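Board notes (copied after class):
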Amino acid sequence: MSEVSERVREIRKDYIMGELNESSVSGDPIVQFKQWMEEAIKAEVPEPNAMSLATANASGHPSVRIVLLRGLDDRGFAFFTNYLSHKGADLAENPHAALAFFWPELERQVRVMGKVRKVSAEESDAYFRSRPRSSRIGAWASPQSQVIDDRKFLELKVDEFETEFERGEVVRPEHWGGYRLYPESVEYWQGRASRLHDRVKYTRSGMNWNIHRLAP
């Protein structure tokens, strides 16, 4: 066994910071999420809105990456990207996805699964306008997930679109916009000692939510 493999196998951490009871959580998983997000922000967790986004194509081949949560309301969790990217291609074939948030400073994790739909053009426009100008130029310059020759290709594309939009607003390209994941299940995880973690899962039932404790 390699030294790295042995060291990885020996990593141990006991979780002692908190507890989670199904009797005390909110009846609405979005309300509960907002509470935990606020606590993560107050705890100064680095990029608390960073989340793993897992997608799969029509053949079931999975893919996962980190993206940023950019919208949260009663409907669900919104993020923005290039519609022609790998994740966009997956979602066009299979509009189901999963999210995972991990806040080690609080010994907490949240998992979300559900269906995904594009947000409205108006919502995508509003968010795009809020981005720094350089990021808006980048959305035009980068053929996300496509093979390119080198970084010089990107730099030339940036120069090209800087020139194109030199005298006007950088408008949103049609291939760029938002998605919203509409949750069908949400699981809250609080680390506990001896790996006997607390897990509370919400499962949608019509307009209501069922709440259950899961074994760790």
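Comment from the instructor: Helices lie at 3-10, 29-42, 86-93, 121-130, 133-141, 151-164. The longest helix spans residues 29-42.
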